[in-house]
Design goal:
The chain is 32% helix and 21% strand. It has 407 residues and is of the alpha/beta class. It has a six-stranded mixed beta sheet with strand order 3-2-7-18-19-20, with no helix packed on it. Strands 13-14-15-16-17 form a five-stranded parallel beta sheet. Strands 5-4-1-6 form a four-stranded mixed beta sheet, with no helix packed on it. A hairpin with a 2-residue loop joins strand 4 (25-29) and strand 5. Helix 4 packs parallel to helix 5, helix 6 packs parallel to helix 7 (252-261) and helix 8 (269-277) runs antiparallel to helix 9. It binds zinc ion.
Amino acid sequence: MSNKILIKNAMIINGLDDKVIKGKSILIEDKKIKQISENIKEDGMLIIDGTDKVVMPGMIDCHIHIDLGGEIDFAQTMIEEPTLMFVLRATERMSKYLPAGFTTVRINGGMDNLATSLRDAIKIGIISGPRVVAAGEYLSITSGHGEFFNSWVHIKENMTKFVDGPEEIRKAIREQVLNKVDVIKFFSTGGACDPNSNINAQEFADDELEMIMKEARRAFKRTSTHAHGTVGIKSAVKAGVDSVEHASILDEECVHLMKEKGTFMVPTLKASYKIIENKDKLPAYVIEKTNALVENCKNSVRMAYKAGVNIAMGTDTGTPFSYHGENALEFELMVKCGMSNMDAIISGTRKAADNLGIGDITGTIEEGKFADLLLINGNPLQDIKVLQDKSKIEIVIKEGNIEVNRL
Ligand SMILES: [Zn+2]
């Protein structure tokens, strides 16, 4: 058997534009999409009949946390469990992604070198899983979003690197470069799930932001920031960050700046949705902070979408009650904020790949790109919820290899 695969007669959503392609076949050979055409000669390749089905690019989640698994209180888990348990749990969580149709994820920060190690373990075939774009430990100021404990609690193995002042930042980023991260992740405002920080306060000062950008760029690394409040978002966008995660409370100036600079917004609607859905089970401070954000989050997506800001799909999966493998809920939530089904799909394929800096190799169905694609028994343009139904995602191909086959 050759390593060629031919998918015939499917309706193709290529991730490039609004149009769907009908009547063409896709030839996959040597990991890549070799040809998309009406007449491809069938000579001994594996043939998949796509009649009445949809082919679309593999989904991409720009924001997950693999060392978290939806726990109510992950700080408690950090106290109770050794780091090796985190590694074992993370490895099991990675196995949820290909079956759910995700061929790429960005692990957007977390403990030690876990994300880069999972990335490399998958790359060399030790475990199977999606392509990983890896951040290192979160960079946080003292008193910032990284502070899950009061200052008298000394936990050495944290997921956060605390840095204050440009010189500490310079050193921390150089260490992460040495550890081969793909992206530098830092906190620009407080967050909802820690008891100490303020979601509206700007955390890194402007001279510190300037250093983050300078050091990251010199090493050809992209940057991603967690930001809820307007002032923190604006300062990071002005400094030149590549993607703003959550971007919960945008104003017109923010939207304008992001549009002008091409900054990506990664809304992560699933995170606050899951927290509010389980509000009776979570600590009061989490609910209080999330309540202050949740309607703003939706409104910010509406504003950004209307203005044509780059929106890339990301879920923040791993936060309370937000489980790995259920990431495609985000598409439904984006559509509820007014995005068209097609634009939601593009945000989780082409735009997501562009946001991660890998748009030249994946994110669309085009000749020459890696064959990362899904065969779906249903039409997500008619019903976006199809993407959440794993039984409908019949085939998952990553780099030309059939990873999941439910036919
Ligand atoms: Zn996050």
